[in-house]
Amino acid sequence: MQSHENAETIAKPSDGLLGGWISRSELALQLGVSEDTLRRWDAMRSGPPCVRAGRKVFYRRATVLEWLEDQETIGQRRGRRGARR
Fold it and tell me: Which of 49, 44, 45, 43 is nearest to 65 (CA)?
């Protein structure tokens, strides 16, 4: 049986309340875009869906992955149309 200290050391920060979520600043870093770009995408409803908790904005990691996959599909469709020309 592990002691309380060992359990805390082994536990990942992502296992907490916000384990499945990522902040706007973290997502911007991960995607290589600015936070302003994410704000603009949110205003245009073209980016991944987000939730607000006070002044903080969070994105569900699974939803961001789905959104990225959708972007891949959209890109492939555009590429196919361009290839027909």
Answer: 49
Report pLDDT digits (tens) over 50-75.
999 999 999 999 999 999 999 987 77
SS3 per residue for the chain: CCCHHHHHHHCCHHHCCCCCEEEHHHHHHHHCCCHHHHHHHHHHCCCCCCEEECCEEEEEHHHHHHHHHHHHHHHHHHHHHHHHC
Residue 24 · residue 50 · CB < 8 Å: yes
Task: Quote the pTM value.
Answer: 0.69
Q: Is residue 12 domain-resident?
A: no
* Number of folded domains that form the chain: 1
Residue pointed to by tokens 């607000």: 52
